[in-house]
Amino acid sequence: MIDLILDLIFIGAIVIALAPVLLGLYGVFLVLKIFFISFTKGVWYVCSCPCYWIIRRRR
């Protein structure tokens, strides 16, 4: 019973120690995801603008 309690305390300590690291990684992942989405939208916009102008000029 005491071993179980000690194990739970040990696991809890590991979780508490890793929580900021995991939250940090999750935050970085979210920032990268937002940046990637905005970057791809920007690339798509830059690529679509010349095509749009070419199509308008041909008409």
Fold and architecture overview:
There is one protein chain. The protein has 59 residues and is an all-alpha fold. It is built from one helix and no strands. The protein has one helix spanning 2-58. It is rod-shaped and about 80 Å long. The chain starts with a helix and ends with a helix.
Blueprint (SSEs and pairs):
Blueprint: H1 2-58
In short:
This protein is 97% helix and 0% strand.
Pairing-aware structural class of the strands and helices? mainly alpha
Beta-strand portion reads: under 5%
Shape: rod-shaped
Please give the oligomerization state of what you see.
Answer: single chain
Number of beta-strand segments: 0
Mean pLDDT: 87
Helix percent band: over 70%
Keywords:
59 residues, 1 helix, 97% helix
